[in-house]
Amino acid sequence: MNSAPPNPALPLDPCTNSLACYIRYAIFDQRITSSLFEREQSENAPNSEQIPGGREAKVRVSCFQENLSKGLSIVGRAVSSRSTLPVLGNILLEAKDDQLRLAATNLEIGVNCWIGARIEDEGAITVPARLLTEFVNSLPPEKIEMELSVRTQTLHLRCGKFDVNVKGIDAQEFPVIPTVDNGDGPEETAEALEGRTIALETAGLTKMIDQVVFAAATDESRPTLTGVEVTFAKERLSLAATDGYRLSVRSIEVDEAFTDALSVVVPARHLSELGRIIGDAEDEKPVQVTVTQARNQILFRVWGKGGETRGAFHQVDLVSQLIADRFPDYRAIIPKSHNTRTVVGTDAFLQAVRVAQLFARDNANIVRLKIEPNGDSGVGNLHLTANSAEMGNSKNELDAMVEGDDLEIDFDVRYLIAVLSQIDEEQVVLETTQSNRPGTIRPLGLGDEEFLHVVMPMHPPR
Domain segments of the chain: what residues? Predict the structure, then answer.
């Protein structure tokens, strides 16, 4: 089965320079200082593995299992799975200032997460991410006591009747993850970023991200299209993503006015991680967004519920490399007019498309839409058909409000499911011109400036 539809892609110019390639072949000691993360230089590192009196140096920390599990789930997706540097497969645990900082990075994205903890002695270590996460997730919801042996770089964890020792790597081997030092977060040990900072309300931001990132390309040969264009212009924030076959654009008003437009390209998978984190954020505190002066990094600061809440975090900093290449001018392919306008119930449309997929998946995922107006009354029908030479066929009919000409047009059923799944409004509008021209889908009641999805048709009906 072909993964891409047989019709031509949108006339976009994909980038050929891969940021991932730049980092993949970096030499750790020489290249990290010029990429996202610099190697940590500690001027106050202890000269001895023992404290005065001859006793071995120990670091003691305790926290709730739910909080540690939440923190590990947040930073875990930033752990490198293919790096030749063992420390990048680890998670950093740093006990300081009555908080436990968890950190992970793959040199393209880095995440700091602070959770509540009781700190008896300060210190840090890195331990294997997978082992620690699986162990903590297997524990009962009780207090976890941790003790670090500085001499052996071993982390001892105890929870209830469970007792383990985990070998780690010195925290000084872990690269620094940049953050923003604005005086309202934990005392930073990481490198501080300087740049333009914007505050965004958390309400609706997760949904906004979800309505765009699915349209980004997953093919790394076109790195620019794997990103989302984030634009601040006048009093609006806009997100746009395209894989060459579909385009999703979402825009909202913001409190801050921008006299000079600011536009960057953020990897879509990193924005997806941000959306996942925001789902557990404190609603009353805005997300802080900082773009560096060099326009090569972006940092998102998210405030958690913290306090006495179990399964919560205090603060998360997510920093990402930006894609350097210019995003295509997608506005040129947005249809300026239409010949047919169809209004249909969102849930009914989605249900019919999912039924059609059962047969369409054996026929290049093609679903045919037949739009029929019914005189001047505006009442019409939307027919969906899908055929499989081996399995049979599906025919579904929906009541719709149709204005304009009748039309038959083929779409990739997966693309219709993806966009309809992200629309909460009761009705959607489908605007079409010809069977070989793009169609547009948007929620009824929202303007093109707020949410617009463009999808290319499959081959014209025969």
Answer: 36-173, 195-330, 334-455
The DSSP annotation for 298-317 comes to EEEEEEB--TT-TT--SEEE
Cβ atoms 175, 105 nearer than 8 A: yes
* Band (44; pLDDT cuts 50, 70, 90): very low
> Under CATH, which number does the domain 195-330 receive?
3.10.150.10
DSSP 184: S
| Distance, CA of 22 to chain centre | 21
Predicted pLDDT of residue 15: 42
Lowest-confidence segment of 28-37, 88-97, 245-254 by average pLDDT: 28-37
Query: Which range, of 5-14, 180-189, 327-336, 356-365, averages the lowest pLDDT?
Result: 5-14
Q: Put the strands of the sheet holding 123-128 in their side by side order.
A: 123-128, 90-96, 99-105, 109-116, 315-321, 297-303, 287-292, 195-200
- Mean local confidence (pLDDT), 254-278: 92
Give whole-number Cα distances, 275 to 128, 177, 231, 311, 451, in Å.
26, 20, 17, 18, 18
The Cα–Cα gap between 374 and 357 comes to 27
CA-nearest of 29, 46, 47 to 38 is 29
**In the CATH scheme, what is the code of domain 36-173?**
3.10.150.10
Q: Which residues contact 376 (CB under 8 A, 6 or more apart)?
A: none
Q: How far is CA 462 from CA 123, 409, 410, in A?
A: 70, 10, 10
Dist. CA 299–CA 166, nearest whole Å: 32
Contact 394, 356 (CB under 8 A): yes
Is CATH 3.40.50.2000 correct for 334-455?
no
- At 394, the amino acid letter reads S
Question: Coil, strand or helix: which one is 372?
Answer: strand
- More confident site: 19 or 305: 305
Spell 179-211 as b/e; 16+ CB within 10 A means b.
bbeeeebbebbbeebebeebebebeebbebbbb
Full DSSP string of 106-124: -SSEEEEEEEE-EESS-EE
**What tokens appear for 380 in the block?**
């019409």
Give the containing element (helix H, strand E) for 73.
helix 65-75
Name the residue type at position 406: D
